[in-house]
Amino acid sequence: MDIIFTAIRGGRSGTREAFAVSSVWRVAEVVGGELENARARTIRLRVDGLMGYLAGQHIDIRLTAEDGYTAIRSYSVASASADEHLEITVDELPDGEVSPYLVRDLAVGDQLEIRGPVGGWFVWRPANANPVQLIGGGSGVVPLMSMIRSHQASSSACPFRLLYSLKSPDSSLYRDELHRLDQESAKLMVDYAYTRSTPEGWPAAPGRLTSESLLDKIFPTEENPDVFVCGQTVFVETVSDWLVMAGYPPESIKTERFGGTGGIR
Amino acid sequence: MGIISSGFRGRRSENAALPPGQHETQDFPVLTAGPAPLIPADEWEFFITAENGQRLAWSWDEFMALPQEEITEDIHCVTSWSKLRTVWRGVSVDTLFENVETTRDFATAHSFGGYTTNVPLWDLLGGKAWVAWEFDHEPLERAHGGPARLLVPHLYFWKSAKWIHGLELTEEDVPGFWESNGYHLHGNPWREERYS
Question: Could you tell me the pTM of the whole model?
Answer without folding.
Answer: 0.84
